[in-house]
Amino acid sequence: MFGKRQKKKEKAASKPSGQSGSQLTIKQLLDKCKASQDFVSFTKSDQHPFTISYYKSMVNPDLVHRDLIPYLTRCSLMPLKQLASEIPVETIEHTKDVQKIQDSLLTGSVLVQPDPKKADCLLVPAATAEKRQISVPETEFSVVGPKEAFVEAIEVNINMIRKRLPIPELHVKEVKIGKLSKTRVTILYIDGIASQENINTLLQRVSDIEYDHILDSSYVLQMISDNQNSPFPQLINTERPDRVAAVLAEGKVALLVDGSPSALTGPTTLVEFFSAFEDYFLSWHVASVFRMIRLLGVLFSVLSTPLYVAVLTFHYEMIPTDLLGTLIASRSGIPFPPIVEAIILELSIELLREAGARLPSKVGQTIGIVGGIVIGTAAVQAGLTSNVLLIIVALAALASFTTPVYQMSNTIRLIRFPFLIFAQFWGLLGVSICFAFVMGHMLRLTSLGRPYLAPLYPLRMVDLKDAFIRLPFNRQGLRPMQMRPADPARLNFKRANQKNDIEE
Predict the structure, then answer these.
(1) Are 259 and 294 in the same domain?
(2) For range 409-428, the mean pLDDT
(3) Which of 47, 329, 364, 443 has a CA that sits 20 to 30 A from residue 104's CA?
(4) 405 with 233: CB under 8 angstroms?
(5) Other residues' Cβ atoms within 10 Å of the Cβ of residue 361
(6) Do 405 and 273 form a contact (C-beta atoms < 8 A)?
(7) 174 and 101 together in one domain
(8) For residues 156, 409, 194 and 4, what is the CA-based torsion angle, rounded to 10 degrees?
(9) Cis amide prior to 267 (ω within 30 degrees)
């Protein structure tokens, strides 16, 4: 498969597509660049003239006028190699390759030509470093633990990971993708721990991406997923560098995209989407209870409204006698069947969510609270919906917010509607059929070729120590086996369980 893809790429690359950078001369390239008003090209006409060309929007002007032009003025008669050693800037390149010159100019380098008639020139890196300050995580906020989140600068993101893993075995491999954007994508892993198969799979999929521009890690996530038609995310998208460092230590691989404030990690499993990283900063008893609450909250969010529709439509006999009177009183005067009533409320909740997400934060919070109260009260008083269903839908929406990973919460919001439709047509049998379809889909789903439902399917008892509950750290001596780590051991069990307190 990889050989066929590689042949297709080579064949596509061999097709003529106009005049590329390698077919241009330096003069033609500079004439092409001068069509843009932010391109600067001037000749210093002293005793020893030289020409400087660069994009002023990409270059730090202080570096050019302070560290470059004074040295060129004094040393312009020197051979290019000697001149490169005199300029106090690292990684200066001496080249004749026009394609290399074009790529460097567009990434913030300065082109120096002692003789414009010759092809020899120097490329001096002088890119401006514009980036925002490191801030607090927004979608994965935690009360306990570090308060740093990724930013849009890939070097800063790698730095935050290396601070947490200061070892030479942490390797970074870089790939450029996107015909127009030339986006830098880096793959991180710990050599000797991560499975080489996982590394090669991720590298191949990223290298095979054929798209004109890549603006965020979400683009890459959709393109390298095992099943691109599945609503379930197959890699975790996180903004926390501490979470990335932790999963790298488990033997996983991570992916960073320049310009994106989040990272992708994998292979992953379904259970991990309901594990907040804050669980590892709390005692294992508290973390296990919170994790179980999240899992139960997700089941309630997906099944509560469909069960209401199924029971009121087909299975009245299942309602307890004491509760039946309350339901009859709440639905008296409601002109719609339960399914229409449920869809109206579910769509109202989704509209409030979208309105709150698209407005400024302070206004969005006000719209969500006030809108929910006003619309819910008005709908009950107008006789459009029952107060019992209003409570169920509100609790279901609240339960969906317990999901720590935003991409999975969107999936939960989506799959409620197929359950509602199946419940309307076939009652509890329809809910069971829809649940079987979802489970069958997840059983076939994989993440970088690894089972999505591990450690439940296939069953791996050793990995259940950090699945539905979290055992103490001294009980987690092995890395997850579904990752196929090259080094499965994390600690020495015998030494970890010894108590070496000083006797008084």
Answers:
(1) no
(2) 92
(3) 47
(4) yes
(5) 10
(6) yes
(7) no
(8) -100
(9) yes
First-last CA distance in the chain: 67
Q: pTM for the whole thing?
A: 0.83
Q: Are residues 287 and 428 in the same domain?
A: yes
Contact 306, 416 (CB under 8 A): yes
Between CA 331 and CA 310 the distance in angstroms is: 15
Domain that holds residue 179: 154-268
Residue 339: is it exposed, middle or buried by C-beta count within 10 angstroms (0-12/13-18/19+)? buried
Q: Is 11 among the domain residues?
A: no
Band of residue 360 on the pLDDT scale cut at 50, 70, 90: confident
Q: How far is CA 107 from CA 125, 152, 345, 425, in A?
A: 9, 16, 51, 59
Distance CA 375, CA 390 (A): 10
| Contact status, residue 98 vs residue 25, Cβ threshold 8 Å | yes
Q: pLDDT tier at 175 (50, 70, 90 boundaries)?
A: very high
Beta carbons of 126 and 64 less than 8 angstroms apart: yes
Omega cis (within 30) before 455: yes
Task: Pick the closest to residue 21 from 97, 107, 120, 111 (CA basis).
Answer: 97
109 domain-assigned: yes
pLDDT band at 231 (very low <50, low <70, confident <90, very high): very high
Is residue 139 one of the residues assigned to a domain? no
Residue 391 lies in a domain: yes
Same domain, residue pair 86 and 224 = no
Same domain? 184 vs 213: yes
C-beta neighbour count of 264 within 10 angstroms: 27
| 5 Cβ contact partners less than 8 Å away, ≥ 6 residues apart | 208
Q: 158 and 102, same structural domain?
A: no
Quick: pLDDT tens for 7-43.
444 444 444 333 444 477 888 888 888 888 888 888 8
Q: Is 182 exposed, middle or buried (0-12, 13-18, 19+ CB in 10 A)?
A: middle
From 210, 235, 268, the end of a domain falls on 268
Q: Are residues 235 and 104 in the same domain?
A: no
Q: Is 263 helix (H, G, I), strand (E, B) or coil?
A: strand
Same domain, 305 and 408: yes
Q: Are strands 450-451 and 39-44 parallel, antiparallel or unpaired?
A: unpaired
Neighbours of 334 (CB within 10 A): 16
- Secondary structure (DSSP) of 146-181: ------S-HHHHHHHHHHH---TTEEEEEEEE-TTT
